[in-house]
Amino acid sequence: MPIIEPMDKSLKNLSGLHLWHGELSSCSQRVRITLTEKKLDWHSHLISIPKNEHATPEYQAIHPHGLVPALVDNGTLLIESCDIIDYLDEKYPEQSLRPGNSSDQIAMNDWLIAADKAQTDLKLLSHEFLFRPRKKMSSDELDTFSKSHNNQTLVAFIKEWQIRDVFPKKKLDQSVDRTHADFTKLDNILRNQKWLVGEKMSLADIAWMPNIHRMSLMDWPLDRYPNLSRWFDQVQLRSSYQTALVNWESEGQAHRFQTYVKQRKIETGIHVTEFGTLAKTTASLPNSCRC
Ligand SMILES: N[C@@H](CCC(=O)N[C@@H](CS)C(=O)NCC(=O)O)C(=O)O
C-alpha cells in the first residue's frame, strides 16, 4: 500500500503535491516523468544521497525506510515509486497514462511489479559500475551512517559496497542475468508493438524508462535488444525524458560516467559485459559480430 501515516505530522498540513527525491535516483525519475507527462505542478524537496541526507532523523520521519522518493499529496503521504505513479494517474485522470481495457491494465500492472522487483539489481549494478568514483566514506563516516540510518538492509548494502573494491562476482553475475532476462522479455514484447501495453505510452513505459537509461550509462550492450533499443530511441524523444530525467543530472554527469566506465575497463578489465550472460553471449558471437 503506498499511503502511509506520516511520523512527521506537519506533512498533513501541506497543500499541493510535494516530492522528496534524488537527482539521479531511478525511482524518483519515474515519479518526475509521470508528474511531467500529466502536467501536474509540484514542489521539489531534493535529498542528496551522496551527502547521506536520507539518513537524517528529519527525512526518516518522512520516509520510514529512509529512501527516495516520498510524495505528499495535500497531506497524504505516499512511498514506493511504482505505487506513487499509479496513484497519481488514478487521482488525476487528465492526460491518462493507462490503457483503456482491463486486460491491458493487468499487463501494465505486471510491468510495474517487474520494474519494482528490478530495483535491487539496478542498485547493485549502479553502485558497482557507476557510483564507485563517489568519495569513499571514512570509517567514522560509515559508522555514523550505520548508526543514524534505520534501514538495516540499506546499511548492510552500503557497508559491503564501501568496504569492497568490487562486489562478489556471483552477485554481479546474478544481477546481470536477471536484468538481461528482463530486457529480453521487454525486447520480445516490443517486437510487434510500439509501446509496452496498448496503443500509447503508459505507466509501464514510464516505469522502465529510468532502468534502460541507467544501464545505457554503464555501457550495457543495448544493441543486443533491437526492439528495446528502438523503443528507447523513441522514449528519449519525449520532452518528459529531458525535463524530468536528463535535466536533473548535473552538467556533464553522463560524460563523467562514460569516461569512468571506459577507463575502468582499460585499467582493470572490469565492465558489465564481463559478467553473467552478457559475458557468455559475447563469447558465443562470431568474430565478425564482436565489434
Ligand atoms: N521500492 C522503492 C525503492 C526506493 C529506493 O531504493 N530508492 C533509492 C533510490 S532509487 C534510494 O533511496 N537509495 C538510497 C541509497 O542508495 O543509499 C521505490 O520504488 O520507491
Describe the model:
By secondary structure, the protein is an alpha+beta fold. The chain has two domains: 3-91, Glutaredoxin (3-Layer(aba) Sandwich); 102-289, Up-down Bundle (Glutathione S-transferase Yfyf (Class Pi), Chain A, domain 2). Helices cover 53% and strands 7% of the residues. The chain is built from 13 helices and five strands. The chain has helices spanning 26-37, 57-60, 81-91, 102-117, 119-129, 139-148, 152-163, 169-189, 203-217, 226-236, 239-244, 253-268, 276-284, and strands at residues 3-4, 17-21, 43-46, 70-73, 76-79. It has a five-stranded mixed beta sheet with strand order 1-5-4-2-3, with helices on one face. Helix 1 (26-37) packs parallel to helix 3 and helix 4 runs parallel beside helix 9 (203-217). Residues 283-291 have low confidence and may be disordered. The structure holds glutathione.
